[in-house]
Amino acid sequence: MASSHFARSLRAALPSSTSSVASSSRSIATTASLQAPKKAANAQAQKVKRKTSIKKNAPSGPRSTGAKRKGVSATDGASSNALSTPFYRAPPDLSGQWTKLSPDSARKDNVDTPLAFTKGDLEAFETCGVEPKVKKALSSYVQPISVLRSSTLDLYTHMDSASTSSSSSARHHILSSSISTGKSYLLLQSISYALASQWCVIYLPRLINWVNSTSPFSYSAEEQAYLQPEVVQKIMASTLAVNAKSGVLGKIPLARDVPGTDFKASGEKTVQDLLKAAPSYSSNPLVSQRIFDAFLHSISSQSAVPTLLAMDDAQALYSTTNYRDPDYKVVQAYELAAVRSILSLLVGGEKAGLKKGMVLAALSRSHSEWQPGNEIAAVLAHATKSSSTSALNGAALHAYSTMKPLHLEHAKRSNWTPFALPEQWTTSELKALFDVRRVEGRGWNAPAAAVTPRLASSSPAGPPGARGGAAVGSFDPLRGLASPPPATGRKGGSVGSGAATEDELFMLRVVDSARNPYRFDRALKGGSIM
């Protein structure tokens, strides 16, 4: 009985175990069949993603000129990338197009004429580092030029008298006209004239960088001021490089002992020797500042070599800096040792000022954060007998205008003489810029139908209907008056149709730029003129 019961239970259990074995075998087979392609795919992916070694400096892609291939020169490879479209024109060779700016060419018969800067001038500008705006303007020319203006000749006359006079009165000139009237360019023209006349040139192109907290500084208890070693080292290095060709620094003896160094005033050392040794003391901020002070003192106390101290952004000397002391109080400009050294040269008068030479500074309005302050504005307004309104920022100065007493005192004792620049350029001066761009092939043309009505509406004579219905003809670039239209345009074709004449385009740019040279030049290079 028991055996029969066991047999029945065994027969009942066999089908289920057989089915479970079968199902497990199917699952194993299915898993194996799925895993096999997956492993194969992974293996294939690993083969594709295998990293390959990349050789540096090897030509890659279609941009390669092929110059690195064996037997192919760099010139042959680059020739394949040259522009070959019919609209491309290579820059013209203007090496001998313009007369060089020099004391000989600075004559009345060359007024309103473009004169090219010499190679030495451009190297000096590059060494000192001009304003970015001015650097961009210089680089936009095929051959960097400047227009010889009447104000340029007036400045040269002042420089000639300063080179022979031993009095320091009325030799601190400051350019204080409105924005984009040519102040920075006039500084460059004065530097060019000074270098050609064997002057010692000290050019400080961006005084704002002294006060905008972009250079490291540290307090010195000995000097009771904040030292800026990078600033003074850069000035001394650029001054040495700019005057190296003339060798005038070797003619100026050292007039003061420099503590911490072997330089003594009683020896035979010169300013050139001092500046050459200055980089070896760059790790010592205090000694660097003392070398800078000895350099300025030696320059100002001698009368053998005339000196030009040219400064841009001069309002920084009388400003509140972006530096903070350990108590997070703002630092004034006169608390910086480098600024204090320049101020000592300005306010020193007969004792500490330049014995022979000129200080020429320019106030800049191109920086919204560093506009000329009320202190220098009040001093210049008083000097020009226009105390009611500041000529710098157009704001009326009154009894409650905010002024810092020390900045005001420094501005007064600097003895600035305003050097007036015209607020607008003359038509002849703008015509000189126009001729330069025309020779360079950068003038933009426009349809006469778009130019003529705009000139008519801007003409003092009014629109054509106000002149008895006379048609607008060609324009005299020196007078700006419309003459009756000829049968054909000056360059061919009808004036009322086709391309506008050069005189019409010139007068259109004069009208749109309001005789501002910066806006006028932008219009010549394709700015928004229509």
Describe this structure in words.
This protein starts with a helix and ends in a 6-residue tail after the last helix. It has 17 helices and 11 strands. Among the domains are: 108-228 and 238-249 and 298-419, no CATH class; 446-524, no CATH class. With 530 residues, it is α/β, with parallel strands linked by helices. InterPro entries: Ribosomal_mS29. One of its GO terms (cellular component) is mitochondrial small ribosomal subunit. Belongs to the mitochondrion-specific ribosomal protein mS29 family. It comes from Jaminaea rosea.
From the structure above, extract its key features.
structural constituent of ribosome, 17 helices, 9% strand, alpha/beta, 5-stranded parallel β-sheet, 530 residues
Overview in brief:
The protein has 530 residues and is of the alpha/beta class.
Radius of gyration equals: 37 Å
Estimate the strand proportion. 5-15%
Mean pLDDT: 75
Class based on secondary structure composition and strand pairing: alpha/beta
Helical percent range?
40-55%
Low-confidence spans: 24-34, 64-68, 387-394, 446-452, 458-497
Largest sheet: 5 strands, parallel
Number of discrete helical segments: 17
Order of strands, main sheet, comes to 4-7-10-3-11
How many E-type strands? 11
* First and last CA, distance: 117 Å
What's the shape? globular
* Quaternary structure type: single chain
Order of helices and strands: HHEHHEHEHEEEHHHEEEHHEHHEHHHH
